[in-house]
Amino acid sequence: MTANIVDGVIKAFQLIFSLDPEVYRITGLSLYVSGLAVVLATLWSIPIATVLGLKTFRGRKFIRGSFSAFIGIPTVVLGLIFYLIFSRSGPLGFFGLLYTPLLISIGQAVLITPILISFITSAIEAIDMDLRDLARTLGSTEIQASLSILREASGGVILAILAGFNRAFAELGVAMMVGGNMYNRTRVLTTAIALETGKAEIAQSIALGVILVGIVYVLNITISYLRKR
Amino acid sequence: MAELMELHNMWKSFGAVNALQSVNLTIPHGKITALLGPSGSGKTTLLRILAGLDTPTRGELFYGNTQIAANEQSVLRQKATLVFQKSVFFHTTVYNNVAFGLQLKDEFSKEEISNKVGEALALVRLEGVEKRQAKKLSGGEQQRVSLARALVLDRELLLLDEPTVNLDPKNVSIIEESIQRVNQERNITIVLATHNMFQAETISERVALLIDGTIKQIGTNQDVFGKSNKFLQSFARLENVFSGTAKPTKEGASIIEVNQHLKIEAAFNKHGKVSVHVRPEDILLSAESLKSSARNVFKGTIVGITDLGAIAKITVDAGKKFSIQITKKSLTEMKLNVGSEIFLTFKASAVRLI
């Protein structure tokens, strides 16, 4: 097994540096699918988190608590729900989205929405609310004042987006259930690792694992460096 | 237009608590009006309504001749701006903080904004700090930047919530001077909330005495401070208020005998029972008796030292207890401790009749 691991690591670097088209295609699709998921989730999470962070209304605590509770939703369960909804006989089957990269993105976006909303809401809540009144008394409209608060919370917002990307990029359940791990179409890094391991292609699995971890690592380091600047 | 703002029967309630009760107030155009009252009297609540940040529970508010409805608060926010008691800053440079209000609209070019920011900072004597992080300035500098950030907008009405509280005398005088300058040079109407009756007396032309959410008295300085006033005395009694018997001197001053150890000379001519006040910042502390023109020199013992941030409040027993404000630096340099013997010096003209 030790030899396998060493082989795997060596092969990983060979695959990366030999510009293996299959590896690059899988990696590229992974980045695209999870990147799109993050964009979609951010689009709806920021407005929702801004309202939750700035407004007081009945049911706010319940909604806030629900999003926190769903942070840990098992990816397989979410994948199953999406499968049932989008399978041919499901209520949204007519869209024909099952086994497409777009549906993986949508599924991952839903998966990471609780993370984004909870983290961004917390970041907004941590900002001194006097700043909102300050922005208003300096002439901001309500929307401009909310944007000022969001800008103050930008460090937390970036962290939330990053955490969301990490979760989407590294998850397996949704990608497997709704993507189907189809060669050249919906195969992403995590589903490829699962497949290769199943075929006892340990070296290939490790190679893909190294790429997966490497991307997460480099991305996180880069963003933390940029934030410090 | 004589009145810039008018409030009729204004109430503000938070649950069962009435922070403001039936407030009737006029704010004359181009003048400095002081809202004088102790902490918790409703000054901030009233300022926030005037600033259009909060809506009153009931009552009518007029700006000029126009009545401002509860859903039109944003109109007020374009006319007035409020400087908060506690300085708050966006996490950026002094320049960006001061320029914030100007950058909201496409009214000014970058160069115009830069000039206006420079002028506003010069007015509060803070040139050259544009690139520094606002949150890293000292407390006094932060409050001056807050004032500059409001002044740069050139609004008709400037609302100030305790702008000099907890600041050292140097920062206090810079802020007071800037306020008076913009009032005189730009004809900006100012409402200043303060619990410091002497700040109200020296800076403003009109005073509204706000106690427990109610305006107890309103009028010119002479109206409010000229007469003996039980509301005023109730919170002037906090510090350095002495009662005694005044005897006129040949020179036209008075000696007030507070008790057998303490006789205070005052630069007014009075006879009989009087109450007087000496501002804590008008009293000089020294290790030795000073030869000066000041008529009142007393030896005493320090009985208390209270840390107020940049300044310290020293309580000295010199026949009666005196409160004196000094900077932290002076406290350290003079090596003052509880039990130290010390001399108090103040001028006869610093003794005010209440």
**Number of DSSP helices of chain B?**
10
Name the shape of chain B in a single word: globular
pLDDT averaged over residues of chain A: 92
For the biggest β-sheet of chain B, the strand order reads 6-7-8-3-9-10
In round numbers, the mean pLDDT of chain B is 90
Largest interface by residue count? A-B, 16 and 22 residues
Given helix and strand content, the structural type of chain B is: alpha+beta
Percent helix range of chain A: over 70%
- In angstroms, what is the radius of gyration of chain A? 20 Å
The arrangement of helices and strands of chain B along the chain is EEEHEEHEHHHEHEHEEHHEEEEEEEEHEE
Quaternary assembly: heterodimer
- State the end-to-end CA separation of chain B: 34 Å
Give me the count of strands of chain A: 0
Describe the fold and architecture:
The complex is a heterodimer of chains A (229) and B (354). Chain A is mainly α and 229 residues long. Helix content of chain A is 77%, strand content 0%. Classes of the chains: A mainly alpha (229), B alpha+beta (354). At the A-B interface, helix 6 and helix 7 of A face helix 2 and strand 6 of B.
Defining key terms:
heterodimer; A: 229 residues; B: 354 residues; 6-stranded mixed beta sheet; 5-stranded antiparallel beta sheet; 10 helices; 27% helix; 36% strand
Concise account of the structure shown:
The complex is a heterodimer of chains A (229) and B (354). Chain A has helices spanning 2-17, 21-54, 60-69, 75-86, 101-125, 130-137, 142-152, 154-170, 173-179, 189-198, 202-228. Chain A is mainly α and 229 residues long.
Describe the protein's topology.
The complex is a heterodimer of chains A (229) and B (354).
Chain A: H1 2-17, H2 21-54, H3 60-69, H4 75-86, H5 101-125, H6 130-137, H7 142-152, H8 154-170, H9 173-179, H10 189-198, H11 202-228
Helix pairs in contact in A: 1-11, 2-5, 2-8, 3-5, 4-9, 5-8, 5-9, 6-7, 8-11, 10-11
Chain B: E1 3-14, E2 17-28, E3 32-36, H1 43-50, E4 58-63, E5 66-67, H2 73-79, E6 80-83, H3 94-103, H4 110-123, H5 139-151, E7 157-161, H6 169-186, E8 189-194, H7 197-203, E9 206-211, E10 214-220, H8 221-226, H9 230-236, E11 241-248, E12 254-257, E13 263-266, E14 272-278, E15 284-286, E16 296-308, E17 311-317, E18 321-327, H10 328-333, E19 341-346, E20 351-353
Parallel strand pairs in B: 3-8, 3-9, 6-7, 7-8
Antiparallel strand pairs in B: 1-2, 1-4, 4-5, 9-10, 11-12, 11-14, 12-13, 14-20, 15-19, 16-17, 16-19, 17-18
